[in-house]
Amino acid sequence: MNKAIVNKILITLGFLFAYRVLAYIPVPGVDATVIKDFLDQQGNNALGYFNMFSGNALERVSIISLGIMPYITSSIIMELLSATFPSLAKMKKERDSMQKYMQIVRYMTVVMTLIQAITVSFGLQSGTELSGAILFGEDQIYLFVAIAAISMLAGTMMLMWIGEQITQRGIGNGISLIIFAGIVSSIPSAIGGTFKLVNTNELSYIKLIGIVAVIIVTILAIIYVELGERRIAISYARKVLIQNQHKRIMNYIPIKMNLSGVIPPIFASAILMFPATLLQATSTPWLLSVRDWLSPDSVFHHFLMFIFVIFFAYFYASIVFNAKDISDNLKRQGGFIPGIRPGEMTAETLNNIASRLTLFGSLYLAVISTLPWLLVKGMGVPFYFGGTAVLIVVQVALDTMRKIQSQIIMNRYQTLSAVGL
Question: What is the CATH number of domain 3-418?
């Protein structure tokens, strides 16, 4: 393997190791053992779900307890705004203005982080179960909230920086890899907890086999769909073939069955977790009812998850797949789809194919995100298991493997051209 690729992999692993170290740095003034005991009893609600995505950082009351979700929420808001306002969309596309666009996302992340951090801090202080977790006196509650909010803000900003560094200097998408590492880090404890339930007869062997079967089928289904693509045949004019007879010309346009990738479930999870986090500190009866409705253990949560995943699948596919640009590039290169007139008719054909694939891809993502929970819930399993975590882990792993493979192929071509072959 090329040295440059090895260095990128080592840089990625180094930053992910730094992320895991941050998960063990606690917020000052909190007894983490009290929080852990509380979260052990709350595995099926929003706190347990949030704890899973943060890599168990929440149960340690780490400075990265909020994880990278405030950044993702800010990115969602900016994506929606850029789709609404042409000036923001233009800013995002232009290279010189992209830095200003990202700066707005960072400022919005600061606001989102402070809102969630203050809410969580007051929730720790006001919760009856967590009253013994705060080491500050009652007259110092505002001092504790200030320290906790600043600590969590610093942690989230460091995570955002780590994600950007991985994307620029490492392999793969940094934000997705951070979420991936957080979920994977909780797998050993989840396996240990499952066997503990089996040993105490709280979980039968038949149910355990059923859970393993659901996980295996889910993983195989994800791999099958993620590796699938629709190939649209292309023909080139004779003049183009003669001019490029010593070069390889792709004779098809590959369109992935899942155009939007892992983004829809991540966006949907962030949208649902944000209000659930804010409602943890409430004591108002009707807000408590709303919190219960949004709990990951409720059917309504998964109904919203299903709808949001489909929405974001269509929304993100419309951003990443531009049929007009593909049609124009194909026309400039002298290529055409057999039986289809170049130009607008080609763009319309590509749009129709992409729309049908997006329909299938969005339903696939929505089903994978919700069906495993329904199956496991139907077995009467006493802990939360959802397809969203499995979907993110498998998709990020496949995407990272593709990028490593593309880097290897690129380096081979560079080596061959350097030696004159």
Answer: 1.10.3370.10
